Amino acid sequence: MTTKHEQIIEYISQLPIGGKISVRQVAKAMSVSEGTAYRAIKESETQGLVSTIERVGTIRIEKKKKDNIEKLTYAEVVNIVDGQVLGGRQGLHKTLNRFVIGAMKTEAMMRYVTAGNLLIVGNRYQVHKIALETGAAVLITGGFDTSSDVIKRADELNLPVISTSYDTFTVAAMINRAIYDQLIKKEIILVDDILIPLDETFYLEMGSPISRWQELNEQTGHSRYPVVDQTLKVRGMVAAKDVFDQPKELVIEKVMTSSPITVNERTSIAAVAHMMVWQGIELLPVTDSQRKLIGVVSRQDVLKAMQTTQRQPHVGETIEEIVTSRMEEVENQQEIEFTVDITPQMTDQMGTISYGVVVTLMVEAAKRMMRKHKRGDIVLENLTLYFLKPVQIESQIKVLPQILEIGRKHGKFDVELYREGERVGKGLLTAQLIE
Q: Does the pTM of the predicted model rise above 0.85?
């Protein structure tokens, strides 16, 4: 049986795309308090079903698939540029294909403006109207507005006309940054990308006898299963060690591990890998916001996904990737050594190497050393940075990692940084090994 919270989210998902949603409207339609309606709307926003825009309200939007996550909706553009919607509110849910900067004569500009575009332009009323007739939305820069005729036409065509106080160059940079951030998000592998869905997941109910575990074990060859109640909420996990030497008629509830660790669809595989290594877990249940089982994720699939990610070229570079891509190994018979040039992006506001970059260099050096020893990868547990001198912009530093201790599951590393022969940094790392 579904909860009231789930019923409200289901109701919101059935509302027409582009429609406005209010707390009072949802509370009245579902006969719940405004507080309950508000919480459900916020959950729907997290799930990508609605978007809240200042001075406009909350609107129903189409949930994006990962393959087009880098495309922005007009509603997102309004929030990015802190804009005001002058007209065409009903079209805010639409996705824009590209944006065009209108810094040329009208005839030349309109060769580039097509349906689904966003034209970024100043207070040129005639251009606003022509763009709308072409099927493009309009973003007016410099804090200007537009004519009543343009607003009326925008409402008729359901194409947004947005005004922002920022100049054209700043607006273009802000939208580019947002698209770039979306590209980085697209490349991050989440549980949702690799989970085994519910219809392919084997699980046990709390009242099932141990003999049912044995049947599943013979059928699948697996030894770990989530345990759920009648509403599919995850209540426990059961493994071979729990049922060993127990009577076949004993119910699973008596031997299961209660309140197991679970993850949701939006958890990154890096976080899942850390949990699995740290806790020694082979299988994790994936649940929704109500802790209902929607699938499982295995250690094998997580590690495979991590290896695939490391091999693939990335379109959107994070700061970490900018730093690690500039690390070059130096041929040295005695020890493993890396060099890196300190660029402006790696420094703090004082022009010296940032603490975050130092940590990244040390962890990456330890990772590369482990790969050279064919020992797989590492998950950082602890890093103590106990010596650091300022390193200024455009310096070159050497990174010297050293294995202090290594076991089957743990490793301890010492990493030193040198500039022109002088030691400028030293840290001690402990990590879990992933083989």
A: no
